[in-house]
Amino acid sequence: MNVYFSFAHEFSEDASEIVKICSMEYERFIMVAINEQICNEFISSLDCQLSNVSFFYFSGPKILGPIKNLMGVLCGDADYYLIDLENINSAAQKIEQLDCRCFSEINRLNMGVINSTLECLDPNLVFFIKKTVNELINFQEEVGRFLIGESYFSDSIIMAKINSSDFDNIKLSELNEFLNHLVNICGHYGTLSNYIDVAIQCFRYYMLCVPNNSAQLMHSVNSQYVQDSYPSLYKINSVINYLAYKTSMKKKLYNKAFMHLFRTYEYYTSGTLISRGKAMFGNANKKGMVHSDCYLVNNKHCLGFYTVYKELAQAAPNIANNNDYIKMDDYISMRNKFHYTHGDLKVRKDTVVGFESVVINQINFLEQELMQNRVTFQHLELELSKCLLIDEYESMVLVIKDYFLKTIKEMSMLNVNNV
Question: Does residue 334 lie in a domain region?
Answer without folding.
Answer: yes
